[in-house]
Amino acid sequence: MSSLSGKVKALFTEIKTHWNTPAEGKYVPYKEYKDVVFAVGSNYAGSKVLEYIGFFSACYLIMHHYKLPYLTFSVISILNKPLDYISALMWWFVCDNLGFLPKKTERKFYFVYVLMMLFGISTILFDYSQLFNQTSSFITYLNGLEGMNATACFKTFGTHFLYTGWVGARNIFWRKKLLPKFGRYKYSLYCDVVPKCIMVILIGWLPVYEIPDVATRVWVANLMFATYNVFGFANNLETCTRSISPNLQERIYVRSYPVKISHFFNTIVGIVMPAIIGTLRYEWADINVYKYVIPITFIILAAATMIFAGRIKERIPQPPVEKKVQIKFWDGMFGVLHNKYLLINTIKDLIDSLGNGMLPFVTILYFYTFRLSGLPYSLLVILISFAGTPPDLLSPYFLKRFSYKQIMIFYQLSRAVGNGLIAAAMWFCGDNLNLCGTICVVVLFFMEMTKTVPTTAGHDMNVRIGDYQMYLSGERLESFAGVFGWFTGPITSFVGLIIPLMLLKYGFNSNWDVLFIDASRRSIIVVPIIVDVIGFLLMTIPYLFWDYDSKKQNMVMEVLKRRAEVTEKKAEEAGEAVSGGYLG
Amino acid sequence: MSKKEKKIQVEEPIHLDIPDDEIWTYQVEGLAAPHINKPYKHYGLKKVIFALVIIVAVSLSVYFSVRTVQKDTYEYEQTQTGYELSKFSNTGYITELNIDYVSRVEYDKENPDVETNFNIIKDETKKVTSVGAYALNCDEKVKVINIGAEVTHVDPKAFYSCWALRQIEVDENNPNYCDVDGVLFNKDKTEIICRPCDHDTYLAEKYGHAKYDENGFRIEPTEEDANYEQYVKDVLTYVVPSSVETVGELCFNYANMKNVYVPEGLKTIETLGFFEIPLLENVYSYKTDTEVTDTHFTTEEELGEVYVSLPEGLEYIGSDAFSYNQAMTYVFIPESVTHIGHHAFWDTVYKEGDELKGVSKINIAVSEESFDSNVKTGDNWRPQYDYLLFKKNIDVVYDSKRIEN
């Protein structure tokens, strides 16, 4: 007992002593731990609220009000694909140079982006399909696409140009303006938060879902959601905390304690918001969810995020922004292709695409098996998500005790077993709703329990991959890493069509009520889950080749620190003004 | 050192002595060497290979993806007896669908009007004999379906959520099916199979109640309109013929209907039989000695003895049979019922302030003991309402007497 009280006392003294200044060998004062709790808490909860809004079929707004055909989302993704390839090139180039481009290049980029925007706007104002013969095979093909017609296809195509140009131009402008001051991870919050709030309000209030013609509804909704997506509100501050310290152990402590505690904000929102929604007459199908509940919740959390955002620092050992290594396009490409660990991740992601196009099983379990709403829904969601919290507090232990390779292989195997059990429950007792639902909830509980440590490991693996890339190429090349997506994209986009087509055959289109039919629900759920199980088993293979251990990582960090130190010293000797660097 | 301690990796502090001029080239043991601002070997060749691989991969992907999402308007599967219509994907302009022979769309290149520039070409050597589940799924254009003489099987889910569908017409020589004023029945009319979602528009036009706005959308009359009462009789009321014993799966789902009269002889209401009919206020039963074949309501006297709620003799109520019908207020379960599926009356009750609206209680003819021993009930067959942030089942009144009409 006395030893426990002694430990508590020592902890208290330690926190008090290093409240404002970190201990030797550490970088983060405890005051910042407190700020992390509030900042990440509101940012994470706010970003989670936004998960209720999106241009995908499982969004309740789309599900209950827009009622768009399921396959239409795949069609739109195919329409957008070619431009994605071209725009990605420019995007990576800008991002991995942190927005600092040679003047001439910058002007060229702006020119291309503005042209894209003008073309996009013109497709929205004019119907380009009229330029073609209306009986040509091209137009009749477009007219035959699920939920689309030729007019809608052209407008959707143009919307993507508008979106790409707009996002691209903003990306250069705001990065250059805000990144030196706010760092690479949280600058976007400052320029996006106000327009994002406005769009969240508009999404609920614009009655686009009342447009009777499905093809028109599709392209107008696509335009509205594209505009909404121009402005981000991701979980930036948590990303920032992953680079909060060059000390690996300290990173994991921050991730395991203040960050984990901050997630309770989301837990509270996760209880209160569905409970409020449960009191509405049509519950999740009530448009007031999107007119009032989501906008009000989001705006409060966004405001809190902005209050605390300034107090979190990123501490990646790096040369000053002005002195950083300039990445040429092809060097960026080949730089990431030489990163063995990115390749492992890519192969894993490629296999993971086997499950693309699946309906969200948990949503179906809650709404179509259990028919939950209000507080019971909140409590079940919280119960399952809470399952991961206790093991996560022990993450530092597990991460020391087991190698990342072991943890990730265990993760994939546990997903395979869990999903296999769920598929069996759905297949053999799908019409005994309470029994089937209970089995699924128990399995989900255990799956969640065994998920958080691998998730922490996964995040840390990604940070380490970034550190390794910085060692290899002088920059993290996080955007150029998307080049792997160029190779896998063609495969994943094709594979991703298999499940939607399968679901269409089993009766799933734009009307989710089909899931009330027991036999249809069984087929719609079970078959894709089995495909996913196969994917999880196969995903263990790439991890067998992971050999990047803590020793290698620490040596890489030493190299990075040394580079920062030497570069800054030289800049100072030359009398140059520098900013944004960090020595570690 | 314990076994456990041994297993935990101990990270020793590492210090690397890197000279200033080697910071960009220093290679960590076991890792690849840094490659910063240096040309790659075979730079040009690598670029070409890279570009070629990407171009080929993207082209193949787009080609196969485009092929995959491209669907023929009509898709058939050959069966032992003929062809099954397995999938109909509307071109966007087909409003009348004939299911008789294997068909395809052919475009008239001279005609620029997209609404009329196509012809449906039939291959009369290939007869369609069945229609598969979800052959039409969430179609928003087809208004009329004509079922040919040779079609011997129509899956109950064949015309799922066809929002614009007003009529299903069946060839009079069809051996298994018939239609009564645009509603699909089996041949001897013992089962009503599908009342189209937009059948009310057909009835509104037939009885002269249809009015449209400048955009072509039908204006629904309101209670304030002078002829609203007649509109309710002609359009929003449906009489199920006296021969019917089964209401098929999904039969009336999403109907625009205020009253329905079902015969005392009805034994089965299948899964989702009366699913989500927001206007449905009254289910009446009628007992008659004369055959009732007209589905148009005129007066209750013509139907014989009429009483409220489910008919005596009803045995089976399928899952979700009456779900989401919040305008209903009274449910009486007769003694004959032996099965009530899960969620049969789900979400038929809601709270307005402190008051329960909709089906606030369920009346059962028999005693609790008899009900428990004779009736098989599925999970949550009773509706639930919000109660102290949770959900509570509505009350059941056993040994209840049916209220007077």
Quick recap of the structure?
The complex is a heterodimer of chains A (584) and B (405). Chain A is mainly alpha-helical and 584 residues long.
List key phrases describing it.
heterodimer, A: 584 residues, mainly alpha, B: 405 residues, alpha/beta, 2 domains, eight-stranded mixed beta sheet, five-stranded mixed beta sheet, 13% helix
Description:
The complex is a heterodimer of chains A (584) and B (405). Chain A is mainly α. Chain A has two domains: 27-315, no CATH class; 325-563, Growth Hormone, Chain: A (Up-down Bundle). Chain A has 27 helices and no strands. Chain A has helices at residues 2-17, 30-49, 60-66, 70-96, 103-125, 137-143, 150-182, 187-205, 214-230, 236-241, 248-256, 258-278, 288-309, 329-337, 340-352, 361-369, 374-386, 389-393, 395-401, 404-429, 433-449, 452-473, 483-495, 498-505, 518-538, 540-543, 550-573. Chain A is globular, with a radius of gyration of 25 Å. With 405 residues, chain B is of the alpha/beta class. Chain B folds into two domains: 17-68; 76-397, Leucine-rich repeat, LRR (right-handed beta-alpha superhelix) (Alpha-Beta Horseshoe), CATH 3.80.10. Chain B is built from five helices and 29 strands. Chain B has helices at residues 3-7, 43-69, 199-206, 228-234, 368-374; strands at residues 74-78, 83-88, 96-99, 101-107, 118-131, 136-137, 144-147, 153-154, 159-160, 167-170, 177-180, 183-186, 191-194, 237-239, 246-247, 259-263, 268-269, 282-287, 305-308, 316-317, 332-333, 339-340, 349-352, 355-358, 361-364, 376-377, 384-387, 390-393, 395-397. At the A-B interface, helix 4, helix 6, helix 14, helix 17 and helix 22 of A face helix 2 of B.
